[in-house]
Amino acid sequence: QVQLVESGGGLVQAGGSLRLSCAVSGIDFRIYAMGWYRQAPGKQRELVATISYSGRTDYADFVKGRFTISRDNAKNTVYLQMNSLKPEDTAVYYCNAAFGGAYWGQGTQVTVSS
């Protein structure tokens, strides 16, 4: 059974930081590309950041320089360090594992107050 479990969301003031974690089980984590997506109320889900199996990273323009994605293959975990948070970063953040097919976590709420 594949499981992706996000944690680390919460309420933070603008300018603050949060670190999201996604613990993965049931797949060979090392060969999967991992990603973070987000969905704000009334909006479509959008890509935030990805990290390949080899550690190559890519970011949406709206988070470049503020967010950092990383992975720990020994812990089967992917992280999203979010700094300089803005109210427009408020959304449910989802973890994604992709290799052929794709798996999703249940999401974690991030709320940034102004």
Characterise the protein shown here.
The chain is mainly β and 114 residues long. The chain has strands spanning 3-7, 10-13, 18-25, 33-39, 46-51, 57-59, 67-72, 77-82, 91-99, 101-104, 108-113. The protein is 0% helix and 56% strand. The strands form two sheets. Strands 2, 4, 5, 6, 9, 10 and 11 form a seven-stranded mixed beta sheet that branches. It has a four-stranded antiparallel beta sheet with strand order 1-3-8-7, with no helix packed on it.
Notable traits:
4-stranded antiparallel sheet, 114 residues, 56% strand, globular, 7-stranded mixed sheet, mainly beta
Record the SSE blueprint.
Blueprint: E1 3-7, E2 10-13, E3 18-25, E4 33-39, E5 46-51, E6 57-59, E7 67-72, E8 77-82, E9 91-99, E10 101-104, E11 108-113
Parallel strand pairs: 2-11
Antiparallel strand pairs: 1-3, 3-8, 4-5, 4-9, 5-6, 7-8, 9-10, 9-11
Order of helices and strands: EEEEEEEEEEE
Low-confidence stretches: none
Radius of gyration from the alpha-carbon trace, in angstroms: 13 Å
What is the helix tally?
Answer: 0
Task: Please report which band the strand proportion falls in: under 5%, 5-15%, 15-25%, 25-35%, 35-45% or over 45%.
Answer: over 45%
Rounded mean pLDDT score: 96
Structural class: mainly beta
Shape: globular
Head-to-tail CA distance between termini: 40 Å
**Largest pleated sheet:** 7 strands, mixed
By DSSP, the count of extended strands is 11
Helicity range: under 10%
